[in-house]
Amino acid sequence: MRHLATDPHVLLHQLLRVYGDFVRWRGFKDIYLVNHPDFIRPVLSQDYRRFSKRVIDYRVLAQFMGNGLVTNDGPHWVRQHSLIQPLFGSRRVNGFEARINTLTSSLMDEWETRVHGDTLWIDREMSRLTFGIVGATLFGSDLERHAGEVAEIIEVINLYPAEVRALMTLFSWFPTPYNLKWRRAVKRLDRIVYGMIEARRRGGAGDDDILDHLIRALDEESGEGMDERQLRDEVVTLMLAGHETSANALTWTLYLLGTHPDVEARLTESLTETLNGAAATADDLPRLPYLKQVVQESMRIYPPVWCYARRAEQQEEFDGYVLPANAYVVVAPYALHRHPDFWPDPERFDPDRFQPNRGEGRHPYSYLPFGAGPRACIGAGMAMLETQLVLAQILQRFKVHVVSDHPVETTAKVTLRPRYGIPVTLSRR
Ligand code: HEM
Predict the structure, then answer these.
(1) Minimum CA distance residue for ligand 1 atom 17
(2) Report field, pTM of the whole predicted structure over 0.85
(3) What is the number of structural domains in the chain?
(4) Which of 3, 103, 126, 199 is in Cβ range 3.0-4.6 Å of 11 for a Cys bridge?
(5) What is the CATH number of the domain that holds 382?
(6) What is residue 25's three-state secondary structure?
(7) What is the Å distance from ligand 1's center to 330 Cα?
(8) Residue 216: how many other CB atoms lie within 10 Å
(9) 369: CA distance to ligand 1 center in Å?
(10) Residue 329: in which H helix or E strand, if any?
């Protein structure tokens, strides 16, 4: 129980190591953990009629995301998904490169003044940067003004681990100090987002960004657009799903590079050789295979979304194991990515695992940082572009030194975060 409250990812991993690929954990409510790619495949690839999102985890997220794309389910999700997913096609996403590079370069200019032994919290820096990127690429300049306030609100929202919040969901009507603080935070967020939508409607078309498209999107069948509440939910969902996760991926990658000088030296050399100090573009990335491998391997060890859950809507059977109807099923990339049958020496940081020829024959459901099937991440392309462009600039301009006497541990909130943050110092290249 102690583990469940403080580091559930470690508990799940241990249960699966001791008891195998299919574990029923009998508690207040039975939890079915599935960790074999063959069992995970049907859970993620079937639609909501067999495995839905009608579980407590998404009810917790819905407290602030509302009924946006992450938490929505059923036929309404199908409609919203068909409106929003096409907005994240690779042509549009690659068009984000200039804004990503400009924002990264301004942060790097700020860092220039901090190279003399100043300590920086890399997790906070990355969060600030990715929030700016989501704001600028998806919502034009509208969000920038509120960046500070929204960051504060997100802090409140993230204050407690998901399990504690799950209990709070059951008693959310109860005016505990935390519930009150939470409700105030959500109200403040609503004010900002509704304000943004209203201003955009009044001002007419803006920057041809995602917000414009959401406002103009019409359902094919009904010919109707989204109401204000649905728009608010989609905006908040993209804002949160699109920045915490990428910030985590960047933070852990910089930490791993800072603690593996051989990998860092090889990566930096390949960047300098190919880019010669310039920022990377989307077109450069195919010529930088090691950069992608490093990001992939970092998300294997520290998957930002460390677990996701489903409800079995009917009885299912995997290789003789029975999953009863209404079972609460958990897939935990944190454990899956450490499965020794698929990842030998799993704790070792080795980006060469992702060399293109070494991936042949690997089970497609053994590596799932972005989920899979109909509910897979719609922002995966954007996240891969963003993380690689940001790293290409940082590594060419600075050497990032992880402060050595600071404890670095994972903690599983909505995303897998460093429990005590990660302090670093910088030196110029
Ligand atoms: C490294 C960064 C990211 C990671 C690791 C990540 C991971 C994931 C995962 C695992 C899911 C599926 C969850 C489930 O099955 O329950 C998901 C869904 C989603 N992600 Fe991401 N994500 C990232 C970045 C982004 C970005 C940049 C955006 C958008 C700007 C985004 C938007 C979404 C949305 C809207 C969904 C829900 C899709 C649906 O169910 O229709 N994500 N993400």
Answers:
(1) 377
(2) yes
(3) 1
(4) 3
(5) 1.10.630.10
(6) strand
(7) 17
(8) 10
(9) 9
(10) strand 328-331
